[in-house]
């Protein structure tokens, strides 16, 4: 473990001490004297201090607090306001990234002085030069809009924001049941197989599976409780009998304490960790489709619809607020299309050249 900034680096050695490296000034005896039990180590050829809260506080006191730049202050104000309004962690990360890109596009302008003309210029730059997607455009505008309205407290009628109309007419890519099985079979161990199986069998989002706790599995009622899903809403979804068998074996082998899936004792699995599991298994499966972890959720909904399940029930299982969001799966299944005969099938054409 190490702590590093533009001023210093503290590297953990032997679990109870930090090796000190200072970049912004020459660390000398007079500095060491201000930190309890700080000494120069011959073997390390560096100053060393105990790894305690007290010593860390004494060390940090050597560095004068720096005033935040207008850009840093604006970004922090944005993060604070998003946090107060209880936006999700992932949304905060996305908004922060977009607002930083917007600020960096105008390095000579104080963020508080940015105008509607700057917004127009930036969005046109993204569209013409970066060729951004429909969804990226909406995210960028939403982040900038939030900053202008909630941080700068400007009237929305006094500056330019043009949201793209409608929605992208893109269909999600789904996996067949055989492809799902192939991916699950290519996982490295029982825990990895259990994680991906839970996502597919219950139609969960990535954030939802890593936030599942042991108490959220109701084996008697065959339900999974999803707490604080998208939009901070709770819901229930189905607990597959096959998944239940798998989870019982997983419990015996890995013995989770708090979270259903733990990287280590009482530490939940990370979203990036689950993504690595999926892409590793996908690569081994040799399935040539541009899919992601979320494709397992799309596949769950599509396969239920193909089995004849009611679209309203599928909407509830997925936690969709808008029924139109769930209707997209009717365009993927091809239900009803199988009975339509192409006009070409009524024309006899030759298959061989004489």
Which helices and strands occur, and which strands form pairs?
Elements: E1 2-4, E2 8-13, E3 17-22, H1 29-32, E4 39-41, E5 46-50, H2 53-60, H3 70-84, H4 89-105, H5 116-130, H6 134-151, H7 177-185, H8 190-202, H9 206-210, E6 217-218, E7 223-226, E8 235-238, H10 241-254, E9 262-264, E10 267-268, H11 271-285, H12 294-306, H13 311-318, H14 323-327, H15 330-333
Antiparallel strand pairs: 1-2, 2-3, 3-5, 4-5, 6-7, 7-8, 9-10
Helix pairs in contact: 3-4, 3-6, 4-6, 5-6, 7-11, 8-10, 8-12
Please describe what this structure looks like.
The protein starts with a strand and ends in a 21-residue tail after the last helix. A hairpin with a 4-residue loop joins strand 6 and strand 7. Helix 7 crosses helix 11 and helix 8 packs antiparallel against helix 10. It has a five-stranded antiparallel beta sheet, with no helix packed on it. It has a three-stranded antiparallel beta sheet with strand order 6-7-8. The chain has three domains: 59 residues, no CATH class; 89 residues, Tyrosine recombinase, N-terminal domain (DNA polymerase, domain 1, Orthogonal Bundle); 157 residues, hpI Integrase, Chain A (Orthogonal Bundle), CATH 1.10.443.10. By secondary structure, the protein is α+β, with helices and mostly antiparallel strands.
Low-confidence stretches: none
Name of the CATH first level of the largest domain: Mainly Alpha
What is the rounded distance between the termini?
75 Å
The strands making up the biggest β-sheet line up spatially as 1-2-3-5-4
Overall radius of gyration: 27 Å
CATH topology of the largest domain: hpI Integrase, Chain A
Classification by helices and strands: alpha+beta
Order of helices and strands: EEEHEEHHHHHHHHEEEHEEHHHHH
Average pLDDT reading: 88
CATH superfamily of the largest domain: Intergrase catalytic core
Judging from the principal axes of the Cα atoms, what is the shape? Answer: globular
Number of domains: 3
């Amino acid at each position: 473990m190490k702590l590093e900034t533009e001023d210093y680096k503290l590297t953990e050695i032997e679990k109870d001490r930090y090796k000190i490296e200072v970049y912004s000034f020459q660390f000398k005896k007079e500095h060491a004297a201000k930190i309890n039990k700080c000494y120069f180590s011959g073997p390390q050829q560096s100053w060393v201090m105990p790894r305690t809260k007290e010593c860390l506080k004494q060390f940090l006191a050597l560095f004068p607090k720096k005033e935040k730049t207008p850009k840093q202050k604006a970004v922090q104000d944005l993060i604070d306001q998003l946090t107060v309004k209880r936006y999700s962690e992932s949304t905060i990360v996305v908004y922060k990234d977009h607002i930083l890109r917007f600020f960096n596009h105008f390095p000579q302008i104080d963020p508080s002085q940015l105008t509607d003309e700057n917004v127009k210029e930036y969005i046109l730059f993204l569209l013409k030069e970066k060729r951004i997607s429909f969804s990226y455009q909406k995210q960028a505008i939403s982040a900038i809009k939030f900053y202008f309205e909630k941080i700068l407290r400007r009237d929305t009628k006094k500056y330019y924001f043009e949201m793209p109309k409608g929605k992208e007419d893109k269909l999600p890519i789904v996996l067949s049941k055989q492809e799902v099985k192939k991916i699950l079979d290519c996982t490295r161990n029982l825990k990895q197989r259990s994680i991906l199986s839970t996502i597919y069998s219950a139609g969960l989002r990535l954030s939802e599976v890593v936030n599942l706790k042991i108490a959220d599995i109701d084996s008697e009622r065959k339900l999974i409780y999803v707490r604080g899903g998208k939009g901070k809403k709770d819901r229930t979804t189905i607990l597959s009998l096959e998944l239940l068998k798998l989870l019982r074996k997983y419990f015996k082998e890995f013995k989770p304490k708090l979270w259903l899936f733990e990287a280590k004792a009482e530490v939940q699995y990370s979203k990036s960790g689950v993504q690595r599991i999926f892409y590793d298994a996908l690569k081994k499966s040799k399935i040539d489709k541009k899919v992601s972890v979320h494709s397992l959720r799309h596949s769950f909904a599509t396969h239920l619809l193909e089995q004849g399940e009611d679209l309203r029930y599928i909407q509830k299982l997925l936690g969709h607020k808008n029924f139109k969001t769930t209707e997209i799966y009717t365009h993927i299944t091809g239900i009803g299309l199988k009975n339509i005969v192409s006009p070409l099938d009524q024309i006899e054409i030759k298959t061989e050249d004489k």
